[in-house]
């Protein structure tokens, strides 16, 4: 996973939408304690910063050092590099031990994980009772430019990592073995709208930061060459136009099962 996002870390940090504040308010209302949260696959820290408004401390981890170098500093957030080879016991210890975490958040990253291994750690570190895990993501469903985005998406198909299909399918088939608490469950994600004012430059930056575009470029194919960008510009309505768009995101939230 780290290799997919390290090279375009600066572009990723500048281009991605900001998650709505009311999402973090809703998640915080689900946990009786607000001592410690863990933001996994934190990237540039967008979700970690939102979580930090409601919790005393946030541990924000990522496998990519390049992403963490561009993460937003916050007095309540501690960023940690956790390579894929990090032993589970070490990771549990970094988080304060078993039963220490009130909220786990994963924004636009769960589909890249070794899910059985991650969920095992999540069950161990979540507080019992009261611990909550929330994962969410978004794809090319962006209103009102959904048709344009779908056409671009089709050009990326030969370069897509199979894991990305969880996200492309709106997490409808993402394993999520936790008890439903009313904000999306396994097989039935809740809808989450992310409103965003986007410039054409921001759109191109977001597309360039995608894993499939990076993979294609590594193979000598530029999916966003001069001709492709010009076509997108015409569909967008001009290079200077700033549009109000809505990312049609998806959300899964749960608590550990008693038998786990």
Automatic annotation (TrEMBL):
CDD domains referenced in this protein's UniProt entry, alphabetically: AdoMet_MTases
All residue ranges annotated as the Methyltransferase type domain in the record: 39-134
Superkingdom classification of source: Eukaryota
Pfam families reported in the protein's UniProt record: Methyltransf_11 (PF08241)
PANTHER family per record: OS01G0589200 PROTEIN (PTHR44575:SF2)
Name by which UniProt lists this protein: Methyltransferase type 11 domain-containing protein
Organism: Urochloa decumbens
The organism's taxonomic lineage, starting at the top: Eukaryota, Viridiplantae, Streptophyta, Embryophyta, Tracheophyta
């Amino acid at each position: 996973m780290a290799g997919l996002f390290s090279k375009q870390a600066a572009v990723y940090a500048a281009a991605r939408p900001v998650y709505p504040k009311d999402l973090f308010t809703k998640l915080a209302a689900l946990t009786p304690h607000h001592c410690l949260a863990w933001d996994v696959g934190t990237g540039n820290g967008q979700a970690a910063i939102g979580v930090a408004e409601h919790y005393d401390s946030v541990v924000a981890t990522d496998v990519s050092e390049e992403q963490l170098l561009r993460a937003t500093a916050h007095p309540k957030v501690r960023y940690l590099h956790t390579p894929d080879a990090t032993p589970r016991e070490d990771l549990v210890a970094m988080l304060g031990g078993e039963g220490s975490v009130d909220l786990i958040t994963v924004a636009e990253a769960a589909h890249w994980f070794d899910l059985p291994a991650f969920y095992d750690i999540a069950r161990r570190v979540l507080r019992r009772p009261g611990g909550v895990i929330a994962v969410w993501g978004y794809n090319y469903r962006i209103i009102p430019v959904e048709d344009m985005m779908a056409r671009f998406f089709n050009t990326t198909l030969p370069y897509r990592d199979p894991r990305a299909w969880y996200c492309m399918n709106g997490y409808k088939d993402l394993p999520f073995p936790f008890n439903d608490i009313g904000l999306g469950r396994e097989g039935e994600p809740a809808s989450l709208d992310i409103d965003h004012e986007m410039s054409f430059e921001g759109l191109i930056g977001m597309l360039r930061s995608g894993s499939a575009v990076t993979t294609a470029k590594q193979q000598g194919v530029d999916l966003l060459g001069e001709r492709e960008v010009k076509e997108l510009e015409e569909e967008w309505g001009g290079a200077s136009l700033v549009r109000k768009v809505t990312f049609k995101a998806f959300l899964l939230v749960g608590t550990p099962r008693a038998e786990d």
